[in-house]
Design brief:
about 80 residues, mainly alpha, about 85% helix
């Protein structure tokens, strides 16, 4: 048993146990309660929407890159003697 003057040494394994317990408690809340399941479904829907918008942005930036490259090639063709 530690005295009041002694410092308790928390090693990495203690933090892993605490974080695992917290993750388990969160998973239990999300999977076992109706409110948690609704929250989980809402988060999944938001992540799907975010993923879709990221894909759209990626496509738009690829089209803009192609257009800029084509414009640069056309400009270089005009400036050559």
């Amino acid at each position: 048993m530690a005295n009041r003057d002694e410092v308790v040494n928390w090693s990495g394994s203690h933090w892993a146990i605490v974080s695992g317990a917290l993750a388990g408690a969160l998973a239990g809340y999300l999977l076992r309660t109706p409110r948690g399941r609704r929250l989980c479904d809402a988060v999944i829907q938001m992540l799907d929407d975010f993923s879709f918008e990221c894909a759209r942005f990626c496509q738009a930036s690829a089209r803009a890159q192609i257009a800029a490259a084509d414009s640069w090639k056309a400009l270089e063709g005009r400036t050559k003697p």
